[in-house]
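I hope you will forgive my troubling you with a question about protein structure. The record follows directly beneath this note:
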Amino acid sequence: MLSVFWWCGQISIYLCICLSVCLSACLPACLPACLSVCLPACLPACLSNLSIYLSIYLSIYLSTIYLSIYLSIYLSIYLIYLSIYLSIYLSIYLSIYLSIYLSIYLSIYLSIYLSIYLSIYLSCLTPLAVIIDNVVDEPVIEHIGNYVKIETLK
């Protein structure tokens, strides 16, 4: 399949070269005569030559080798521009976004989150501390002479 495309490309290049040689040889000699005397007679022949030229040009232009080379060059240039654009854009965007995010959004978020979290945490800890305080008895130590008396209050 690749050899068919290669041969089509070779034929289109050969026809292009032949056409350019023929046109460069015939056009300077034919143009003044066509314009002055033979324009009505030569116009259909010139138009047919022009249509042949256009068909050859389009066959070269639309050949797969030309299109593949053109598209590969175009896409590589496009990808280079895209990578440069994205690297610059992302570096600027991320630096601005992260500076704003870290300075403003994160501080607001953390202050709200910590205030809510600590208020819930402390409101849950206060009854728990009261319960623990009521469960644990505080010992009362009395010194009676050489003896020590330990009592718990209830």
